[in-house]
Amino acid sequence: MFACCEVVEPTTGEVVEPTTELVVAVDAPKVDAPKLDKPVAARCSEHSNASGGGNGDGDVSGVAVSSGGARDPPSAVNAERLAAEVIASFPDGAAHWITGAHVERMLVATNGDGPLAVAKLKEAVAWKRDTLDGWLAAEAERILTAETRIIAIGGEGRPMVYTGCVNQRKGEIAGILLGCVWHRALEDAGPRAQLDYILDAHGYQPLLNLNIMPYLKIARSLDSYFAERFHQIIIIDVPQVLVWVIKAILPLLPAETRAKLKFVQRSKPEQMEELYNLCADEEMRQMVIKLLEMNKASSSSDGREATHELTRLFLESQRLRGSQR
User: How far is the C-alpha of 222 from the C-alpha of 225, rounded, in Å?
Assistant: First the structure.
């Protein structure tokens, strides 16, 4: 069995046969991804029960992933003690934000391996200190109007983050803004939360993205700072000029993250259901459909502000309804 993406030649609109580098072989049974609304300890317990406490291989969304069984559920591990261990490793105070909840999330990512969870949290702290904090400081104003943004609160309370490539403007480093917005979305949602990310690759502008180093830095953080933070990543209408970037990034992604990565095309309604199923209700679904239609009709960033107004008003209405409950 194989999973791959179809790519579209941007000038002709024709589907281009995927290269073998973008094909990932898998040969394991399909398993369900963990649900966000279940406690972290329960999610670990389910992995453990399903595999008899050992490790197993699973196939989620057509990409190989080692789902495994939790050796030590978070309930059996002193999360606060492990958090203190991480904090003590950084005399400069860089790990002050680490809590037991971060440890519990990382224990899910490591199938209950306490020492490995601590090691990955140390990597996360170092990455935030050495990379992300600088990005956040440099892009503080630009983040407020960035094309990459939270557009809605989707199923199970997950923030949905969206990027429309056609709306990128000169001077914006998309990879850096991506990391900053993911961080802010998850900070608001909590240390155990996950998000859905939608990359609408229509109108991708290669000349604005010649430096792929920020993307590579982000990719390397997905196994530490952003570990267990994604529910689904959906990429729409991949053009040929974006394939080389994807090929450079894929080997850096953890298997668990690759399993959550899906490539879809607007021209195939059955594929687009992968995206629409992430919506919390029909109202959100219709907003997302309208957003995609607006950006598909654009050949430049001239319509960017109109799409931002659409998503801003929708998100505000969602939050208002939530506050009134």
Answer: 6
37-50 residue pLDDT tens: 444 444 444 444 43
Give the count of domains, the chain. Answer: 2
Burial of 202: CB neighbours in 10 Å, binned 0-12, 13-18, 19+: buried
E strands, 68-138, in order: none
Expressed as residue numbers, the domain containing 49 is: 24-135
Assigned domain for 19 exists: no
DSSP state of 12: T
Q: Are residues 86 and 178 in the same domain?
A: no
Cβ contacts of residue 258 below 8 Å, gap of 6+?
Answer: 24, 63, 64, 65, 250
19's tokens: 């290269």
Q: Is residue 72 located within the same domain as residue 190?
A: no
pTM, to two decimals: 0.78
Tens-digit pLDDT profile for residues 56-81: 333 222 222 333 333 444 554 489 99
Distances (CA, A) of 253 to 53, 118, 256, 263: 25, 20, 8, 15
Residues 6+ apart with CB under 8 A from 183: 132, 136
